[in-house]
Design brief:
Elements: H1 2-18, E1 22-32, E2 38-47, E3 52-59, E4 61-68, E5 71-76, E6 79-84, H2 89-103, H3 106-112, E7 115-122, E8 125-132, E9 143-149, E10 155-161, E11 166-172
Antiparallel strand pairs: 1-2, 1-11, 2-3, 3-4, 4-5, 5-6, 7-8, 8-9, 9-10, 10-11
Length: about 170
């Protein structure tokens, strides 16, 4: 019993060490693989390390993507929506994947997406590649590539590939 408690405490401390907060600018590039059409957007991202994320776009102005607890709200690329992720399974998976990737809990993102993961390190950066094992569940990702800065654990680049061939890259600065 004592061994289990010690292991659980160590696990919680290691997860807490990777939980990150963000307050930075980002560039989002969305590419349709089949046509090559690309959309570039810019904005500011804040994240509390748990379940509050705001992506407020300056270009195009007025667009946003917000996670506030279980609620996901957006006005993005012509889509306006407000959804409770506890009531919409695909939104629940997308929300969890995004929050887990930003907070450094990529292992859980891989598990949630029924995916394999591969980690490499080079010159101060850790790259995590998460690849679906088979058919991708609705709301899941075919692949996710994360680049973390080793010195502070912050994501500097995140690439999300949807099964339909849409690839979205976030560059954080």
């Amino acid at each position: 019993m004592k061994r289990i408690i010690v292991f659980a405490c160590a696990l919680l401390l290691s997860v807490a060490a990777f939980a990150q907060t963000y307050d930075l600018d980002f560039t989002q590039t969305r590419r349709l693989k089949i046509s090559g059409k690309t959309t570039v957007m810019k904005g500011h991202l804040t994240f509390d390390g748990k379940d509050h994320l705001n992506m407020i776009y300056s270009d195009p102005a007025g667009e946003f993507f917000t996670i506030d607890g279980t609620m996901v709200k957006m006005n993005l690329l012509g889509v306006k929506a407000e959804m409770d992720s506890e009531k919409v399974a695909m939104v629940k998976l997308q929300r969890a994947t995004l929050l887990n990737c930003l907070s450094g809990n990529w292992q859980q993102a891989a598990k949630d997406n029924n995916a394999n993961s591969e980690v490499t390190e080079k010159t101060g950066f850790r790259t995590v590649k998460i690849t679906a094992k088979g058919a991708v569940q609705r709301g899941g990702y075919k692949s996710v590539v994360l680049t973390y800065r080793i010195k502070d654990g912050l994501v500097t680049r995140m690439i999300l590939e949807e099964p339909g061939g849409i690839e979205t890259t976030y560059e954080m600065r």
